[in-house]
Structures are given as C-alpha cells and as structure tokens.
Design goal:
This protein has 211 residues and is α/β, with parallel strands linked by helices. It has a domain at 3-40 and 102-210: 3-Layer(aba) Sandwich (Rossmann fold), CATH 3.40.50.300. Helices cover 43% and strands 19% of the residues. The chain has 8 helices and 9 strands. The chain has helices spanning 23-33, 63-71, 90-98, 109-118, 133-143, 148-162, 177-192, 201-210, and strands at 12-16, 37-39, 43-44, 59-60, 75-81, 84-89, 102-106, 123-129, 170-173. It has a 5-stranded parallel β-sheet with strand order 2-7-1-8-9, sandwiched between helices. It has a 4-stranded mixed β-sheet with strand order 4-3-6-5. Helix 1 packs across helix 7 (177-192). The protein is globular and about 65 Å long. The N and C termini lie close together (10 Å). The structure holds guanosine-5'-monophosphate (5GP). The site of guanosine-5'-monophosphate (5GP) has 15 residues, from strand 5, strand 6 and helix 4.
Length: 211
C-alpha cells in the first residue's frame, strides 16, 4: 500500500480576514498549487465585479433566489456581509467530504463561526491579519474595483472583522505574501496528516506488519 493512498477525511479549510488583507490571493495561489483542494463557490446577492466569472468566483443570484435556498436548508452557512447576502451551498461540501477531497472556504467570521459550530472536527480555520491599517487601506484602493463609499464601508467593517481573530485555530499576519502563503500551506499539510483524520492508517498498519 502506497502512503499517498491512505484513506482520510477531507479538510474544510476556512480562511477569513477583512477585505484587502490578501486572503483571496492566498486562496488563489493555494488552489493553483494544491491538488485535491477545491474552492467552495458561494452564492451571493452582490453585483458581479468586472473581473469575476459567474459560477467560478461566485454564483450570482437574486435576493429571492437566495431566500429560497436559505429556507430550503440548501446552505451550510449564510450571512449578510457589507449589505449583501452570502452563503455556502451544502451539496458541493457534502460531496467533497465524503470523497476525501479538501475544500477551501473564503468566508467571513460569521460563516467561520457557523462552520466551526456545525463541523468542528472537519474544520481547520485560519485568520489572516493585515500588517497595518495603512496597508489595508492601500490594498483596498489599489484594488480599485469598488466605488469610494464601498471602500469606506469595508474599512469600517474591517475593525469589527479583525476582532474575531481569537475564534480561529491559526492566525497568519500577511506582511509578506510569499511567507504568509507558505505558512498557510504548511498548516494544510500538517492538518492533512493528523491521525484522527486518517482512518486508513489501520489498514496501512495491517499491511505494514502482516505484509
Ligand atoms: P467580496 O464581496 O469581497 O467577494 O466578499 C466579501 C466578504 O464576504 C469576504 O470576507 C468573503 O470572505 C465573504 N464571503 C464570501 N462568500 C461567503 C459565504 O459564502 N459566506 C460567508 N459567511 N461569507 C462569505
């Protein structure tokens, strides 16, 4: 038996941070580098930004459709963020977990709280902090995909969001993107190796000892 094929449960990797702390870039790099990791594509009622693709970055839906999904229990978690609704479709997560694939959740602290409550054993949560508020503001302006009032709202929400770092398993300060990325990747590597996620070790031991 090859060590790579030892059966294990999937990891639900939750990444949260205020907007502009670099979470999306880290998430994108991680998805590009890691096999067996896929993004949980959320539903949202917010308007699509120019660079976004429906079905890839989000499923963009109406408020009416959102309410229908929420009320039929199709969402694993949901929350209002910056005046819009966001939620995680349940089906894709159930499928990935049962097939032993890992899933990445780019969600806010309200979603993080809900997932840590409902799926504590499968969730590994990481909070990403910016190195300073000046840097956070500069990143929001550089992104410049949002109108000025949207940026102001995101900055004031950032203070509330930041206060939730204490609820997470790990905290990474994104001063240097490459270092922060390496830290997040190391967390994922270590969490995949946790004994209690790897029921296949019993079978591996049996093959190891008994041939
Ligand atoms: P944005 O509008 O910039 O894409 O995202 C705004 C915030 O909503 C980000 O903090 C993002 O992580 C969060 N978010 C995105 N999808 C979900 C979701 O499905 N659930 C929750 N709770 N937050 C989400």
């Amino acid at each position: 038996m090859d060590a790579q094929t030892i059966k294990r449960r999937g990891v639900m990797l939750v990444l949260s941070s205020p907007s502009g702390a670099g979470k999306s870039t880290i998430a994108r790099n991680l998805l590009a580098k890691e096999d067996n990791l896929e993004l949980s594509v959320s539903v949202t009622t917010r308007a699509k930004r120019g660079s976004e693709i429906d079905g890839t970055h989000y499923h963009f839906i109406s408020e009416r459709e959102f309410e229908r999904k929420r009320d039929s229990d199709a969402l694993l978690e949901w929350a209002p963020v910056h005046g819009n609704y966001y939620g995680t479709p349940r089906d894709a997560v159930d499928k990935a977990m049962s097939e032993g694939r890992d899933m990445l959740f780019d969600i806010d602290y309200q979603g993080g709280q809900q997932l840590m409550h409902t799926a504590r054993a499968d969730v590994v949560s990481i909070f990403i902090l910016p190195p300073s508020m000046t840097e956070l503001k500069a990143r929001l302006i550089r992104r410049a995909e949002d109108a000025e009032d949207v940026i102001a709202k995101r900055l004031s929400n950032a203070i509330e969001e930041i206060s939730h770092w204490k609820e997470y398993d790990y905290v990474v300060v994104n001063e240097d993107l490459e270092r922060a990325f390496n830290q997040v990747q190391s967390i994922l590597t270590a969490e995949r190796l946790r004994r209690d996620r790897r029921p296949g070790l019993f079978e591996f031991e049996d093959a190891l000892v008994n041939g």
